[in-house]
């Protein structure tokens, strides 16, 4: 029987689907696979456009409970909210009310097909939004207004923080904070004041370095995926942390030098 590799699953919307892209010379998915090669399989289950209601309905088609010959999900990263946070418009139907969004996140994590794996779960906040850029693109695409707003999107990221804080076995990965902190630090003359307007918010009128990190106002590029990777990397590899690479700790199949059943007869 083939030996199944344990899995690290990226479950979310286009922000995880795009983790496979190599545009700009960096791929989050490839970086994670390189870090965990021969120990875990990185499985991308990112679905562009999905909100949490759609993800919850599709979940039984995406995940199966563990079985003796199949892989087990050891780590599960969940990233939704960018679409749930859409404003209600005649031309866009992705919006999920915030209370329902919170309930959906809990239901996804508690779903029997996931719970049976007993994975270590990480909740990821959606990144900031450059509403100034989003407005330009949405109006050009025929929407009567911006499909997303910076303040609303930030409030959905706060909901993710709340859910993670309420569940002791869930770890928060604050992508919103990391991307915004980087953008503010690289925007000369801009000072983010508590409760003040954000970069990318029409109220501030300043896109700043967000225009480099979120080229279309919403999706990550290579630089911002590197920021994401720097957040995730420390959470993986405890199984072989502190060991020498040549010891091959955690390999599913052993090194060729120490596997007697690989020797020539």
UniProtKB/TrEMBL annotation:
Molecular-function GO terms, alphabetical: hydrolase activity
- In this chain the SGNH hydrolase-type esterase domain maps to 10-227
Keyword entries, A-Z:
Hydrolase
* Short name of one Pfam family: Lipase_GDSL_2
Coiled coil location: none
Q: Mind telling me which InterPro entries this protein's record contains?
A: Iah1-like (IPR045136), SGNH_hydro (IPR013830), SGNH_hydro_sf (IPR036514)
- Name of the protein in question: SGNH hydrolase-type esterase domain-containing protein
